[in-house]
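A note from the maintainers: we've had questions about how concatenated examples are separated. There is no special marker in the raw files; a new sequence line simply starts the next protein. For clarity in this README we add a label.
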Amino acid sequence: MTRLAPLTYDTLTPDQKRVSDAIAKSRGTAPGGAVGGPFGVWLRSPDFADRAQSVGDFCRYHTLLPQYLVEFAIIITARYWKVQVEWRGHARLAIEAGLPESIVEDVRVGKKPTLRDAKEQAVYDLTSEYFDTHRVSDATYQAALKEFGEQGVVELVGIIGYYSMVAASLNVFDVSLPDGEPLPLQ
């Protein structure tokens, strides 16, 4: 159940269509399709949607972090905020990007995963510690800095922040899975 009526491309204003087309282009899909997820919420404010989708495009496709680490940070964020829709889509993308299914499953059930290397550890520790304490210790920060440099840490924190904003939009407006689909996060 969602608190907002679904948008169709035919009912969008010209500004909404412009932004919807930009969203589609950034994700490699054809303009004029269904507008869902956070974009279906954000398009109620086309200027906000335009700016937010631009940040999202960077966070998903242009950061210096490898895609599997981007998706790892996203699923940790989705788990923290218990965003069913975000989890469903990004868990699949994390696996497709090369994150082992065992790590994805451990995150899903709230278990500390067995990680393969220092880069995965740095993403997990920084993201999890931030959500657990709302701060990051010097040791955790230094470990992430060693793995990713300043630019990489800034981008990782940006990913966490952006997907927290996505989570807020999806949770507040109750954008949920289709009726009858089991909830992956408990």
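[label: protein 2]
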Amino acid sequence: MKRTFFITGTNTGVGKTVLAVLLARHLRRQGINAVALKPVCSGGRDDARALRSAMDSALTLDEVNPWHFRASIAPLLAARRERRRVRLAEVLAHVRIMQKRFEMVLIEGAGGLLSPLGENFDSRDLITALRAIPVILVPNRLGAANHVRLTLESLPKTFRAQARIVLVSPAKPDSATASNAKLLERFVPSAKIFGLPWFKENLSPARRLETPQVKRTLAGLID
């Protein structure tokens, strides 16, 4: 069955690209014809290049990331600085082409769920229009429960029920790191709460895929 997953976060810089890369590699290792996209980005295309590499260059860089802007600010504003406009219908049309071509589509958002991506739309609008399964990443530290609950409350009820939560371990755990998963079980089914360990920057994706916690998380996300 064809499915679409939308990888978003409680903020920017929470590890969306890391998870998208790992999940794309995992799926393709399983023989699943999967593709990873970052339709809109600003401030550089390193994330899009990493996604393209993860799927063995099955797409061109411009297919992975059709809309890109130089300024490291919200894509909406970065596009306007270049006197350009990104419209929801255009993004949806591009993704739907990929949905027809591939068995599974992974979409990485930019910033958090409600960060403006283009003219009058954000990641939530893409999730609902594409009927995608939300994957919400959050740093596993003090405040995680509040950030997750706020993000979930921003989703329509149907999509909230499907959402997966991924707690990303920080370089230095704090007093809440060990207890956040248990706390979140009061609001989210435990089967939909996952974790990712802290990765050193020089650790290759291939080695990360061999980490037991990563294996469990990737398998669980698509179950």
